[in-house]
Specification:
By secondary structure, the chain is mainly alpha-helical. It has helices spanning about 5-15, 25-35, 35-45, 50-85. It has one domain (about 5-85).
């Protein structure tokens, strides 16, 4: 099965609900998209939603880690530049 825009929209809504595979989330996604819960479970398996959620979470974590480190080192540089005047 080829993934369509409808499948992608379903995944995005699923992800916005926390990306957890529960009957409650399945029902919400199905109701919003206009398909049965069984169809959502089939899409979940066919389009590897679990792995996609894990990958996106990993990517977001990497970006946040990079930004935190960047801010930290800029702060250290600032502190060094301010206090180096007194050394």
């Amino acid at each position: 099965m080829k993934e369509t825009l409808r499948h992608k929209e379903a995944f995005e809504y699923y992800y916005s609900l926390g990306g957890t595979a529960t009957d409650k989330n399945c029902g919400k996604v199905g109701a919003k998209i206009g398909v049965s819960c069984n169809t959502i479970w089939n899409w979940y398996k066919a389009f590897n939603w679990k792995e996609r959620v894990e990958q996106r979470t990993s990517d977001i974590t990497a970006v946040i880690t990079f930004l935190v480190l960047l801010i930290f080192f800029k702060f250290l540089f600032f502190i060094y530049s301010v206090y180096s005047v007194f050394l």
